[in-house]
Amino acid sequence: MVNTIMLIFWGIYGAVVGYKVLRAVITYEMNRHKDKKLLAEGIYVVRLNRFEVAFWSVAALMFPVPMFIMHIGMDLGFHWFDIAAFIISPFFTRGLPGIRYWYVTVSLDGVEQVGDPFYPFTAIDKVVCKDNSDRERAASLHFYTKSGDEIVTLQPIYGNYRLPAITRFRIEKKRWPDMRNPADRALVDGWTNRESIVYYYLRLQEASGLADSKKQAKGK
Q1: Which of 67, 91, 140, 161 holds its CA 20 to 30 A away from the CA of 46?
Q2: Quick check: 156 pLDDT over 60?
Q3: How far apart are CA 201 and CA 156, in angstroms?
Q4: Angle, to 10 degrees, between the axis of helix 80-93 and the axis of helix 64-73?
Q5: Which residues touch 63 (CB under 8 Å, ≥6 apart)?
Q6: Terminal CA-CA length for the chain
Q7: Sign of the four-CA dihedral 213, 163, 203, 144
Q8: Whole-number Å distance between alpha carbons of 20 and 14
Q9: Does pLDDT of 134 surpass 60?
């Protein structure tokens, strides 16, 4: 009887989590479709990459599905496995909201991360490349204001090239690009790729003084 109750519980719990996973993935794909239309207007939207989506989707089902199968195959009753799985499971579903809602928008005028204020490009004062393991895949770019507030963190290895390309323009041309100017935009477009971003920032490591248009940016 107890095993039947636990079987029903994990069945319902797994169905609810499965529904949330399905809804998150469908919303993610719909948003990506909308993002392609924005791209035609010069607006880049950064979301979780598909590897992260797959990871959190599988992780969310890692406990409810095996527990349901275990109660089908064995008469466990109410086992300590159930307690442990119920406590740990929420930690593996915490990535689902990010699949649906997390984004960074790089428009013609600035950058905005969901839940954070909009920052014009001129608010970016420093960019730091962190690569603790000496591997290209581990590199992440951190953008800061003059007061030290972090604007956004991006991993360019996953295709997040637009903001780094705009910032490279500032570093090399000593001014922020006018993204409505065809010449400026063409140069940024030419740098919006892996070869022009990943290795450039791995070599640069850090640049500061970007918010002050009268001061030359300093590379580390």
Answers
A1: 91
A2: yes
A3: 10
A4: 160
A5: 85, 86, 88, 89, 92
A6: 67
A7: positive
A8: 10
A9: no
At residue 143, φ and ψ (nearest 5 deg) are -110, 130
Distance CA 48, CA 169 (A): 25
Sheet holding 110-113: strands in order across? 44-46, 104-106, 110-113, 119-120
* Nearest-angstrom CA–CA distance, 64 and 100: 21
Q: What is the mean pLDDT of residues 27-45?
A: 92
Q: Does 1 have pLDDT greater than 90?
A: no
The token pair that represents 209 in the structure block? 């003084």
> Smallest Cα–Cα separation from 215: which of 109, 119, 118, 122?
122
What band does 44 get if pLDDT is binned at 50, 70 and 90?
Answer: very high
Which pLDDT does position 217 carry in this prediction? 52
The pTM of the full predicted model, rounded to 2 decimals, is 0.79
Neighbours of 121 (CB within 10 A): 22
DSSP, collapsed to helix, strand or coil, labels residue 45 as strand
Q: At 9, list the tokens.
A: 């519980």
Question: What's the token pair of residue 14?
Answer: 């797994």
d(CA 68, CA 85): 11
